[in-house]
Amino acid sequence: MTDCLECLDARRSVPYTQMTGPGPDDGQLLRMLNSASRVPDHGKRVPFRFIEIRGEAREALGAALEQRMRALDPDAADGVYEKARKRFSYAPVIVMVVAAQGEDMKIPAHERYATAACVCFALLLAAQAQGFVAQWLTGVVASDPEILRLLGVGAEEVLVGHIHIGSTSTPVPERIRPEAADLLTRWTPA
């Protein structure tokens, strides 16, 4: 199992602006999604689903995001709108991970959200295992009602993140990571 630990230790987020093709083909993406779906899931609810953005859909979503940003902040600098328009044009594939948050008598919404968040992280690792780079993003795309409606995210769903997947020729530097020993406390009974 050391390969699993090495994969975790090597994980890096690559900024979406540094991504290019190639991206995963349909078979590679399904392989990633199958692996990413093997997450803790209390009650076996499978409280998540995927939305794939690829090809011309990337530019259409970028144009919609730009239009929405102009409506939300009409006085913003042009760079804000340009960034919104280009947001989905770098990575060849973007996967939206959507969590079910509707009524459930047994499994609380926060547990179902946590399952979908685990899917996002597992998808980052699955992309890396296939030789790709990835980044998990949220922001206005995950919170704006108009963008969510456009994507088909329902009233009882939450967009947990959009995972950009592609390739890069830019070296991916390591960043400072926390030391687990500094974060660990041991509980002892009183």
UniProtKB/TrEMBL annotation:
EC class name: oxidoreductase
Domain of life: Bacteria
One of the Pfam families matching this protein, by short name: Nitroreductase
Entry cofactors: FMN
Residue ranges of every copy of the Nitroreductase domain listed in the record: 11-166
Enzyme nomenclature, EC number: 1.-.-.-
Keyword set, alphabetical order: Flavoprotein, FMN, NAD, NADP, Oxidoreductase
InterPro entries: NAD(P)H_nitroreductase, Nitroreductase, Nitroreductase-like, YdjA-like
Family under the similarity heading: Belongs to the nitroreductase family.
Protein name: Putative NAD(P)H nitroreductase
Source species of the chain: Lysobacter soyae
